[in-house]
C-alpha cells in the first residue's frame, strides 16, 4: 500500500495547472510531436495479392498467435517474422530511430496512429482499395485518428472499466461509475488500480464530472483531491497480475483492462465487468505499414487477409476481445460472446469513450498529477 501524502497538489503541479487556461485543447493519450519531418510515403494503387516473399511485423505480445502465423504463411506463401513491443512510445521511438526501416507492419494504438501520421512514419495506402475492406464494422470506419482510413485498419478493441466480485459484494454496494469507485464501500476492502497514469487520471477526471484532456485547472485540482482522499483505500496499484488478483479474490474490486477482465472472469464466474456511467476508456489497436517497409505488396496482402473474419477469429480468441469485423463475433465461442467484455450491450457502448491524445503540455500535467498521487 502507498504512504499517505499531503492533501494538496505539489507546487509544481499547482503551477502547471495555473497555466492550463492558456493551453489549447488537443485530444489525449500520447503527446503531440513538435517536429514532423520528411514527405508522406504513398503506396496507393490497385491491390495485387503477393504470393511469396517475406514480411516483418512489429506488434503487441499475444496479437500474433502461432496458429495464425502458420495459417497466413500457408495461405499466402509469405514468410512471417514477428517481434513485439510493450508500449506505443517504444514503437514510436523505434520507428523514429530507424526512419521506419526494419519492419513492414506495425500495430499502433489509436492516438499513436495519429502521431505517426503526423511524423510521416506510416505509409499511405488507402484501405478502400483492399477487397476485404467492406468487412470492417461501420463504427470503426471513420476514426478520429485516420478519418479516411488511408493509413490503418482496426485490429483489436478494448475497454477500461471496473471489475467486482458479485458474490462477495451486495448488489446495493456494486460500483456503477468512477465516482463510486473512488468512494469505496466497506464491503470492498482494499481496491486495485492500474499502474497507468492515463487510466488513473482519466478516471479521476471523469469521477469529478470532467473528461480526458481537460483544460480547466479546477478539474485537475478536484481530481487530485479525490485521489488523495482515496489513497487509504488502495491495496495495489499495478498493471501486472491484475487478472490473478481479481480471480483469486485478493481484490474484490479493481480497475482493469477488458482483456485482463476476460481472463479473470474465465477463472471466476462471480466477477462482473462494469462500463462506468461517467465514461469507460475505449482504445483500438490498429494495423499500419511502416514508412521504411521493404515489402509493400506483402504488407497489403497481410492486411487484407486479416480483414477476413475467418482468418482473424483466432487472434480475438487469444486476445480476449470482440471483433472489429462484420460476422466476427459470431465466430467466437458462445462462452466468450455472452460476456460484456467481449460483446458490450448498446447501453454499455454509450459509456465507452475513445481514447485520444493530449498536447505535450497537458500530458506533462497528467505526469505530475500521477507522480504526486503515488508519492
From TrEMBL:
GO (cellular component) term, any one: periplasmic space
Signal peptide limits: 1-26
UniProt cross-references to InterPro entries, sorted A to Z: SBP (IPR006059), Sperm_putr-bd (IPR001188)
Keywords: Periplasm, Signal, Transport
Gene Ontology MF term list: polyamine binding
Positions that bind spermidine: 111, 196-199
Pfam families in UniProt: SBP_bac_8
Coiled-coil residue spans: none
Subcellular location field: Periplasm
One BP annotation, GO: polyamine transport
CDD domains tied to this protein: PBP2_PotD_PotF_like
Domain of life, per lineage: Bacteria
Protein name as catalogued: Extracellular solute-binding protein
